[in-house]
Amino acid sequence: MVSKFPQMGSSIFSEMSQLAVQYNAINLSQGFPDFPIDDRLKLHLAQAAESHFHQYVPMAGYGPLLERLATLTETQYGRLINPQHEILVTAGATQGIFAAIQALVHPGDEVIVLDPSYDCYTTPIHLVSAHPVRVPLGADFLPDWPQIEGAVCSRTRMIIINTPHNPSGRVWNSSDYLALQKLVAQHPQLLVLSDEVYEYITFASRPQSVHQYPQLWERCISVSSFGKSFHCTGWKVGYMVASEPLMREIKKVHQFLVFSVNSVAQVALTAYLEEVSVALLGDFYRQKRDYFARLMQTTAFTLLPCEGSYFQLVSWPTAHVESDMKLVRRMVQEVGVAAIPLSPFYEHPPQNQHLRFCFAKSDTTLEQAVERLQKIK
Ligand code: PMP
Ligand code: GLN
What we know:
The protein contains 13 helices and 13 strands. By secondary structure, it is of the alpha/beta class. The strands form three sheets. The chain has a seven-stranded mixed β-sheet. A four-stranded antiparallel β-sheet has the order 9-10-13-12. The protein has a two-stranded parallel ribbon with strand order 1-11. Bound molecules: 4'-deoxy-4'-aminopyridoxal-5'-phosphate and glutamine. The site of glutamine has 5 residues, from loops.
Protein backbone atom coordinates (compact mmCIF):
# COMPACT_ATOMS: atom_id res chain seq x y z
CA MET A 1 0.00 0.00 0.00
CA VAL A 2 1.34 3.42 -0.93
CA SER A 3 0.97 5.79 2.00
CA LYS A 4 -0.73 9.10 1.27
CA PHE A 5 1.33 10.64 4.05
CA PRO A 6 4.68 8.89 4.06
CA GLN A 7 6.37 11.59 6.16
CA MET A 8 3.69 11.75 8.85
CA GLY A 9 4.12 10.14 12.25
CA SER A 10 2.09 10.61 15.39
CA SER A 11 1.74 14.19 16.62
CA ILE A 12 4.28 15.75 18.95
CA PHE A 13 1.50 15.98 21.57
CA SER A 14 0.85 12.22 21.48
CA GLU A 15 4.57 11.49 21.44
CA MET A 16 5.39 13.65 24.45
CA SER A 17 2.41 12.49 26.51
CA GLN A 18 3.40 8.90 25.80
CA LEU A 19 7.01 9.59 26.83
CA ALA A 20 5.71 11.25 30.01
CA VAL A 21 3.89 8.01 30.90
CA GLN A 22 6.88 5.86 29.93
CA TYR A 23 9.31 7.84 32.13
CA ASN A 24 6.80 8.61 34.88
CA ALA A 25 7.40 12.30 34.20
CA ILE A 26 5.27 15.32 35.07
CA ASN A 27 3.39 16.14 31.90
CA LEU A 28 3.48 19.84 31.00
CA SER A 29 3.50 18.96 27.30
CA GLN A 30 0.09 18.25 25.70
CA GLY A 31 -2.40 21.00 26.48
CA PHE A 32 -5.03 19.70 28.89
CA PRO A 33 -5.94 20.54 32.49
CA ASP A 34 -5.04 18.03 35.23
CA PHE A 35 -7.67 19.39 37.65
CA PRO A 36 -11.34 18.35 37.81
CA ILE A 37 -14.09 20.04 35.82
CA ASP A 38 -16.72 22.10 37.64
CA ASP A 39 -19.07 19.89 39.73
CA ARG A 40 -22.03 21.72 38.20
CA LEU A 41 -21.00 20.58 34.74
CA LYS A 42 -20.65 16.99 35.98
CA LEU A 43 -24.13 17.21 37.48
CA HIS A 44 -25.63 18.50 34.24
CA LEU A 45 -23.96 15.65 32.38
CA ALA A 46 -25.35 13.10 34.84
CA GLN A 47 -28.82 14.66 34.58
CA ALA A 48 -28.70 14.63 30.79
CA ALA A 49 -27.63 10.99 30.88
CA GLU A 50 -30.48 10.11 33.28
CA SER A 51 -32.94 11.85 31.00
CA HIS A 52 -33.98 10.95 27.48
CA PHE A 53 -31.27 12.73 25.49
CA HIS A 54 -29.70 9.68 23.90
CA GLN A 55 -30.70 9.97 20.26
CA TYR A 56 -29.46 12.16 17.42
CA VAL A 57 -29.85 15.87 17.90
CA PRO A 58 -30.36 17.97 14.75
CA MET A 59 -27.37 17.98 12.42
CA ALA A 60 -26.25 21.54 13.25
CA GLY A 61 -26.64 21.07 17.00
CA TYR A 62 -29.12 20.86 19.90
CA GLY A 63 -31.55 23.77 19.39
CA PRO A 64 -31.30 25.32 22.88
CA LEU A 65 -27.49 25.18 22.66
CA LEU A 66 -27.52 27.01 19.32
CA GLU A 67 -29.76 29.68 20.89
CA ARG A 68 -27.47 29.99 23.89
CA LEU A 69 -24.38 30.32 21.68
CA ALA A 70 -26.07 33.02 19.61
CA THR A 71 -26.70 34.97 22.82
CA LEU A 72 -23.10 34.43 23.91
CA THR A 73 -21.76 35.70 20.58
CA GLU A 74 -23.96 38.76 20.85
CA THR A 75 -23.11 39.59 24.47
CA GLN A 76 -19.39 38.94 24.09
CA TYR A 77 -18.74 40.39 20.65
CA GLY A 78 -21.83 42.37 19.66
CA ARG A 79 -22.64 40.28 16.61
CA LEU A 80 -26.23 39.26 16.10
CA ILE A 81 -26.39 35.83 14.46
CA ASN A 82 -29.10 33.51 13.34
CA PRO A 83 -28.85 30.38 15.54
CA GLN A 84 -30.44 28.14 12.93
CA HIS A 85 -28.22 29.13 10.03
CA GLU A 86 -24.97 30.57 11.36
CA ILE A 87 -23.79 28.18 14.10
CA LEU A 88 -22.59 24.60 13.90
CA VAL A 89 -21.72 22.39 16.87
CA THR A 90 -18.65 20.32 16.04
CA ALA A 91 -16.73 17.37 17.48
CA GLY A 92 -14.08 19.71 18.87
CA ALA A 93 -12.43 22.56 17.04
CA THR A 94 -10.37 20.07 15.04
CA GLN A 95 -13.38 18.65 13.23
CA GLY A 96 -14.76 22.12 12.57
CA ILE A 97 -11.48 23.23 11.01
CA PHE A 98 -11.38 20.08 8.88
CA ALA A 99 -14.97 20.54 7.67
CA ALA A 100 -14.47 24.24 6.90
CA ILE A 101 -11.36 23.59 4.80
CA GLN A 102 -12.96 20.67 2.96
CA ALA A 103 -16.04 22.73 2.20
CA LEU A 104 -14.51 26.06 1.24
CA VAL A 105 -11.07 25.44 -0.25
CA HIS A 106 -10.83 24.21 -3.85
CA PRO A 107 -8.09 22.12 -5.51
CA GLY A 108 -5.18 24.37 -6.50
CA ASP A 109 -6.11 27.13 -4.02
CA GLU A 110 -3.53 28.53 -1.65
CA VAL A 111 -4.11 28.83 2.09
CA ILE A 112 -1.92 31.07 4.26
CA VAL A 113 -0.76 29.36 7.45
CA LEU A 114 1.25 31.47 9.89
CA ASP A 115 4.34 29.76 11.33
CA PRO A 116 4.65 28.61 14.03
CA SER A 117 1.17 27.16 14.00
CA TYR A 118 -0.87 24.41 15.61
CA ASP A 119 -0.67 21.11 13.76
CA CYS A 120 -4.21 20.47 12.50
CA TYR A 121 -4.34 22.98 9.62
CA THR A 122 -2.15 21.63 6.85
CA THR A 123 -3.41 18.05 6.44
CA PRO A 124 -6.98 19.07 5.50
CA ILE A 125 -5.46 21.56 3.02
CA HIS A 126 -3.44 18.78 1.37
CA LEU A 127 -6.52 16.54 1.30
CA VAL A 128 -8.34 18.99 -0.97
CA SER A 129 -5.25 19.23 -3.21
CA ALA A 130 -4.71 22.84 -2.18
CA HIS A 131 -1.40 24.35 -1.06
CA PRO A 132 -0.49 25.62 2.38
CA VAL A 133 1.66 28.76 2.07
CA ARG A 134 3.59 29.08 5.31
CA VAL A 135 4.32 32.67 6.26
CA PRO A 136 6.48 33.28 9.34
CA LEU A 137 5.14 35.36 12.18
CA GLY A 138 7.49 38.07 13.44
CA ALA A 139 10.19 37.30 15.99
CA ASP A 140 7.66 38.42 18.62
CA PHE A 141 5.17 35.80 17.30
CA LEU A 142 2.78 38.53 16.12
CA PRO A 143 1.73 38.89 12.46
CA ASP A 144 4.23 40.45 10.08
CA TRP A 145 1.65 42.22 7.87
CA PRO A 146 3.97 43.24 5.02
CA GLN A 147 5.06 39.58 4.69
CA ILE A 148 1.47 38.35 4.82
CA GLU A 149 0.33 40.93 2.25
CA GLY A 150 3.22 39.87 0.01
CA ALA A 151 2.11 36.23 0.19
CA VAL A 152 -1.55 36.81 -0.74
CA CYS A 153 -2.39 36.55 -4.45
CA SER A 154 -5.44 35.78 -6.59
CA ARG A 155 -5.08 32.06 -5.78
CA THR A 156 -5.24 32.63 -2.02
CA ARG A 157 -8.60 31.34 -0.83
CA MET A 158 -8.08 31.43 2.91
CA ILE A 159 -5.88 32.69 5.71
CA ILE A 160 -5.89 30.77 8.99
CA ILE A 161 -5.36 32.90 12.08
CA ASN A 162 -5.07 31.89 15.72
CA THR A 163 -5.19 34.26 18.68
CA PRO A 164 -4.58 33.77 21.60
CA HIS A 165 -1.83 31.87 19.89
CA ASN A 166 -0.73 28.28 20.36
CA PRO A 167 2.20 27.86 20.95
CA SER A 168 3.36 31.38 21.86
CA GLY A 169 0.55 32.74 24.05
CA ARG A 170 0.68 36.05 22.19
CA VAL A 171 -2.60 37.93 21.60
CA TRP A 172 -3.42 40.16 18.65
CA ASN A 173 -4.19 43.81 19.24
CA SER A 174 -6.80 45.86 17.39
CA SER A 175 -4.27 47.08 14.82
CA ASP A 176 -3.78 43.45 13.74
CA TYR A 177 -7.52 43.01 13.21
CA LEU A 178 -7.63 46.26 11.25
CA ALA A 179 -4.74 45.06 9.07
CA LEU A 180 -6.66 41.82 8.48
CA GLN A 181 -9.77 43.79 7.60
CA LYS A 182 -7.78 45.81 5.05
CA LEU A 183 -6.32 42.64 3.53
CA VAL A 184 -9.74 41.04 3.19
CA ALA A 185 -11.14 44.21 1.58
CA GLN A 186 -8.35 44.11 -1.02
CA HIS A 187 -8.90 40.44 -1.94
CA PRO A 188 -12.55 39.60 -2.65
CA GLN A 189 -11.94 35.84 -2.80
CA LEU A 190 -10.17 35.66 0.58
CA LEU A 191 -11.79 33.93 3.58
CA VAL A 192 -10.56 33.97 7.18
CA LEU A 193 -10.60 30.85 9.33
CA SER A 194 -10.18 32.21 12.84
CA ASP A 195 -9.08 29.65 15.41
CA GLU A 196 -10.35 31.22 18.64
CA VAL A 197 -10.21 28.18 20.93
CA TYR A 198 -8.42 30.18 23.69
CA GLU A 199 -10.72 33.22 23.23
CA TYR A 200 -11.61 33.52 26.92
CA ILE A 201 -8.09 32.88 28.21
CA THR A 202 -6.67 36.40 27.93
CA PHE A 203 -4.77 38.21 30.65
CA ALA A 204 -4.33 41.83 29.63
CA SER A 205 -7.27 42.41 27.32
CA ARG A 206 -10.91 41.43 27.02
CA PRO A 207 -11.70 38.43 24.81
CA GLN A 208 -11.46 39.43 21.14
CA SER A 209 -12.89 37.93 18.01
CA VAL A 210 -13.33 38.53 14.32
CA HIS A 211 -17.02 38.96 15.20
CA GLN A 212 -16.24 42.41 16.60
CA TYR A 213 -15.43 43.62 13.07
CA PRO A 214 -18.61 43.92 10.93
CA GLN A 215 -16.59 44.35 7.76
CA LEU A 216 -15.11 40.88 8.35
CA TRP A 217 -18.36 39.07 9.12
CA GLU A 218 -19.24 37.87 5.64
CA ARG A 219 -15.79 36.40 5.10
CA CYS A 220 -14.94 34.80 8.46
CA ILE A 221 -15.45 31.46 10.10
CA SER A 222 -14.64 31.35 13.81
CA VAL A 223 -13.85 28.14 15.69
CA SER A 224 -14.37 27.71 19.44
CA SER A 225 -13.81 24.79 21.82
CA PHE A 226 -15.64 23.92 25.03
CA GLY A 227 -12.64 21.72 25.82
CA LYS A 228 -10.58 24.87 26.48
CA SER A 229 -13.30 27.05 27.95
CA PHE A 230 -14.69 24.48 30.42
CA HIS A 231 -11.58 22.34 31.09
CA CYS A 232 -13.07 19.27 29.35
CA THR A 233 -10.77 18.60 26.39
CA GLY A 234 -11.80 14.94 26.34
CA TRP A 235 -15.42 15.79 25.54
CA LYS A 236 -14.37 17.02 22.10
CA VAL A 237 -17.20 19.48 21.62
CA GLY A 238 -16.77 22.87 19.97
CA TYR A 239 -18.63 25.13 17.57
CA MET A 240 -18.22 27.38 14.61
CA VAL A 241 -19.87 30.64 13.63
CA ALA A 242 -20.05 31.86 10.03
CA SER A 243 -22.42 33.77 7.80
CA GLU A 244 -25.17 31.67 6.24
CA PRO A 245 -23.68 31.23 2.73
CA LEU A 246 -20.41 29.91 4.19
CA MET A 247 -22.11 27.81 6.84
CA ARG A 248 -24.41 26.22 4.27
CA GLU A 249 -21.34 24.83 2.51
CA ILE A 250 -19.65 23.72 5.74
CA LYS A 251 -22.77 21.85 6.83
CA LYS A 252 -22.69 19.85 3.59
CA VAL A 253 -19.37 18.36 4.70
CA HIS A 254 -20.23 18.16 8.39
CA GLN A 255 -23.33 16.04 7.75
CA PHE A 256 -21.20 13.32 6.18
CA LEU A 257 -18.24 13.68 8.50
CA VAL A 258 -20.12 13.18 11.79
CA PHE A 259 -23.73 14.15 11.01
CA SER A 260 -24.32 15.37 14.58
CA VAL A 261 -22.32 15.63 17.79
CA ASN A 262 -22.75 13.90 21.20
CA SER A 263 -26.26 14.71 22.43
CA VAL A 264 -25.71 14.32 26.17
CA ALA A 265 -22.70 16.65 26.19
CA GLN A 266 -24.64 19.27 24.22
CA VAL A 267 -27.55 19.17 26.67
CA ALA A 268 -25.19 19.45 29.67
CA LEU A 269 -23.28 22.34 28.09
CA THR A 270 -26.53 24.19 27.40
CA ALA A 271 -27.56 24.06 31.07
CA TYR A 272 -24.05 24.97 32.25
CA LEU A 273 -23.84 27.97 29.91
CA GLU A 274 -26.93 29.36 31.67
CA GLU A 275 -25.10 29.65 34.97
CA VAL A 276 -21.41 30.05 34.26
CA SER A 277 -19.53 33.20 33.34
CA VAL A 278 -16.84 32.76 30.71
CA ALA A 279 -15.44 36.09 31.90
CA LEU A 280 -13.92 34.31 34.95
CA LEU A 281 -11.65 32.13 32.85
CA GLY A 282 -9.08 34.84 32.14
CA ASP A 283 -8.60 35.54 35.87
CA PHE A 284 -8.40 31.86 36.67
CA TYR A 285 -5.61 31.24 34.18
CA ARG A 286 -3.88 34.57 34.91
CA GLN A 287 -3.28 33.30 38.44
CA LYS A 288 -1.88 30.06 37.06
CA ARG A 289 0.37 31.91 34.63
CA ASP A 290 1.65 34.22 37.37
CA TYR A 291 2.21 31.38 39.82
CA PHE A 292 4.10 29.33 37.25
CA ALA A 293 6.16 32.38 36.23
CA ARG A 294 7.09 33.06 39.87
CA LEU A 295 8.16 29.46 40.38
CA MET A 296 10.14 29.46 37.14
CA GLN A 297 12.23 32.41 38.37
CA THR A 298 14.07 29.87 40.51
CA THR A 299 15.21 28.02 37.36
CA ALA A 300 17.71 28.89 34.60
CA PHE A 301 14.94 29.24 31.97
CA THR A 302 13.96 32.62 30.53
CA LEU A 303 10.23 33.23 30.05
CA LEU A 304 8.77 34.87 26.95
CA PRO A 305 5.71 37.17 27.10
CA CYS A 306 2.42 35.30 27.59
CA GLU A 307 -0.81 37.26 27.18
CA GLY A 308 -3.28 34.43 26.63
CA SER A 309 -3.81 30.65 26.16
CA TYR A 310 -2.47 28.23 28.78
CA PHE A 311 0.98 27.91 27.32
CA GLN A 312 4.22 29.51 28.46
CA LEU A 313 7.20 29.64 26.12
CA VAL A 314 10.66 29.54 27.64
CA SER A 315 14.19 29.71 26.27
CA TRP A 316 16.49 26.91 27.22
CA PRO A 317 19.60 28.03 29.14
CA THR A 318 22.13 29.07 26.49
CA ALA A 319 24.92 26.63 27.28
CA HIS A 320 23.16 23.84 25.41
CA VAL A 321 23.36 23.54 21.62
CA GLU A 322 21.37 20.40 20.81
CA SER A 323 18.04 20.60 18.91
CA ASP A 324 14.81 21.31 20.77
CA MET A 325 13.58 17.77 19.95
CA LYS A 326 16.66 16.29 21.62
CA LEU A 327 16.29 18.65 24.56
CA VAL A 328 12.74 17.62 25.36
CA ARG A 329 13.50 13.92 24.97
CA ARG A 330 16.48 14.28 27.31
CA MET A 331 14.51 16.40 29.76
CA VAL A 332 11.70 13.87 30.05
CA GLN A 333 14.16 11.04 30.72
CA GLU A 334 16.73 12.77 32.89
CA VAL A 335 14.67 15.36 34.78
CA GLY A 336 11.18 13.86 34.59
CA VAL A 337 9.31 16.80 33.04
CA ALA A 338 7.66 16.66 29.61
CA ALA A 339 7.45 19.81 27.46
CA ILE A 340 6.71 20.54 23.80
CA PRO A 341 9.51 21.61 21.42
CA LEU A 342 8.64 24.35 18.94
CA SER A 343 10.15 22.95 15.76
CA PRO A 344 7.11 20.74 14.85
CA PHE A 345 5.03 23.94 14.61
CA TYR A 346 7.08 25.13 11.62
CA GLU A 347 7.62 24.14 8.01
CA HIS A 348 11.21 25.39 8.26
CA PRO A 349 12.07 25.52 11.96
CA PRO A 350 14.45 28.34 12.83
CA GLN A 351 17.43 27.62 15.06
CA ASN A 352 15.81 28.11 18.44
CA GLN A 353 15.66 26.49 21.78
CA HIS A 354 12.19 27.52 22.81
CA LEU A 355 10.06 25.03 24.67
CA ARG A 356 6.36 25.20 25.49
CA PHE A 357 5.02 24.37 28.94
CA CYS A 358 1.30 23.93 29.64
CA PHE A 359 0.35 25.61 32.95
CA ALA A 360 -3.25 24.33 33.01
CA LYS A 361 -2.22 22.22 35.99
CA SER A 362 -2.83 22.12 39.73
CA ASP A 363 -0.48 24.26 41.81
CA THR A 364 1.04 21.08 43.23
CA THR A 365 1.83 19.74 39.76
CA LEU A 366 3.46 23.06 38.83
CA GLU A 367 5.50 23.12 42.06
CA GLN A 368 6.73 19.55 41.58
CA ALA A 369 7.62 20.21 37.94
CA VAL A 370 9.60 23.35 38.76
CA GLU A 371 11.45 21.56 41.56
CA ARG A 372 12.69 19.14 38.89
CA LEU A 373 13.42 21.90 36.37
CA GLN A 374 15.71 23.59 38.91
CA LYS A 375 18.22 20.82 38.19
CA ILE A 376 18.78 22.18 34.68
CA LYS A 377 21.62 24.72 34.67
N1 PMP B 1 -6.73 24.88 17.78
C1 PMP B 1 -5.76 25.10 18.67
C2 PMP B 1 -4.92 26.33 18.55
C3 PMP B 1 -5.52 24.19 19.69
O1 PMP B 1 -4.55 24.40 20.57
C4 PMP B 1 -6.30 23.03 19.74
C5 PMP B 1 -5.95 21.99 20.76
N2 PMP B 1 -6.71 21.77 21.65
C6 PMP B 1 -7.34 22.86 18.81
C7 PMP B 1 -7.50 23.80 17.82
C8 PMP B 1 -8.22 21.66 18.82
O2 PMP B 1 -9.26 21.79 19.75
P1 PMP B 1 -10.28 20.58 20.05
O3 PMP B 1 -9.65 19.73 21.09
O4 PMP B 1 -11.53 21.26 20.51
O5 PMP B 1 -10.47 19.84 18.78
N1 GLN C 1 -4.05 21.44 21.49
C1 GLN C 1 -3.28 20.58 22.34
C2 GLN C 1 -1.88 21.20 22.51
O1 GLN C 1 -1.52 22.11 21.81
C3 GLN C 1 -3.11 19.20 21.79
C4 GLN C 1 -4.35 18.47 21.42
C5 GLN C 1 -3.98 17.18 20.71
O2 GLN C 1 -3.14 16.46 21.18
N2 GLN C 1 -4.58 16.96 19.61
O3 GLN C 1 -1.18 20.74 23.34
